[in-house]
Write a structure and sequence with these properties.
The protein is of the alpha/beta class and 224 residues long. It has a domain at 64-211: Phosphatidylinositol Transfer Protein Sec14p (3-Layer(aba) Sandwich), CATH 3.40.525. It has helices at residues 14-24, 26-31, 43-59, 73-76, 107-124, 146-159, 177-185, and strands at 80-85, 91-96, 130-135, 164-170, 195-198. It has a five-stranded mixed sheet with strand order 1-2-3-4-5, with helices on one face. α5 (107-124) links the parallel β2 (91-96) and β3. The radius of gyration is 19 Å and the shape is globular. InterPro entries: CRAL-TRIO_dom (IPR001251), CRAL-TRIO_dom_sf (IPR036865), ER-organelle_contact (IPR053012). Residues 62-224 form the CRAL-TRIO domain.
């Protein structure tokens, strides 16, 4: 079973953190040589996103999440789990869609488990991005829950910006092609190119065989 998310020994206020950032990065900020804020800055949008994110974290008690919140089968069924790395040594978060059955899951609990995995990653490896590998083998319409996939996308765009390197969609069935075209539109235009559709022949362009499970044609251990 996965370990609990590490907790911090001290908390800080927004004011204290702002002061610490300004002091620590004063040269980069004041001289404008290393940090690029862009030519435009939508202050009101930034305030809104900050408020929504911090409110969401508070309402969902994200800071207090641990393995104790989830039944053992959430880890044992290997539906959402980290295992191995891509060609650039970026961690792979596997999302095995066939394990889920639309309408039979506690979606709120699954969302908390997704958040737990994101949160564990950023606390254990701050600044490191991830690849999400959507495994669509043996997947039909009864498995694909738009609510859960949209939560993943929204979380990456709003609550965990910068966490996603790219997405791999593995062995998409013909019956789900229209569905994934829709899902892709949920991403910002500049991010849509980060969705890569692969099969057993092309996935090795992103993941080496020693990091790819045997049932995907690789040589790695299949068990997380």
């Amino acid at each position: 079973m996965a370990t609990s998310i590490p907790t911090y020994q001290t908390l800080t206020t927004v004011q204290e953190f702002r002061k610490a950032v300004n002091n620590h990065f004063s040269k980069q900020i004041n001289e404008g040589q290393e940090y690029d804020y862009g030519k435009t800055f939508d202050e009101q949008k930034a305030f809104r996103i900050f408020h929504e994110t911090m409110t969401w974290r508070k309402q969902n008690k994200v800071y207090d999440m641990s393995t104790d919140l989830f039944p053992a089968n959430y880890f044992d069924r290997h539906a959402i789990y980290f295992q191995n790395h891509d060609m650039n040594n970026i961690p792979l978060l596997h999302y095995v869609i066939r394990v889920f059955h639309k309408g039979q899951e506690d979606n709120e609990a699954v969302k908390r488990f997704i958040t737990y995995n994101f949160e564990e990653q950023i606390r254990n490896h701050p600044g490191q991005r991830i690849v999400i590998l959507f495994d669509l083998r043996e997947t039909g319409l009864s498995h694909l829950d738009y609510d859960l996939i949209k939560f993943v996308v929204n979380s990456l765009m709003h609550y965990y910006p910068g966490l996603l390197a790219y997405m791999l969609v593995y062995k998409q069935p013909f019956i789900l092609q229209a569905a994934w075209k829709l899902i892709k539109t949920w991403l910002p235009t500049e991010t849509q190119n980060s969705v890569k559709f692969v099969d057993e022949k092309t996935i090795s362009q992103y993941i080496s065989l020693d990091q790819l499970s045997k049932d995907m044609g690789g040589t790695a251990n299949d068990t997380p």
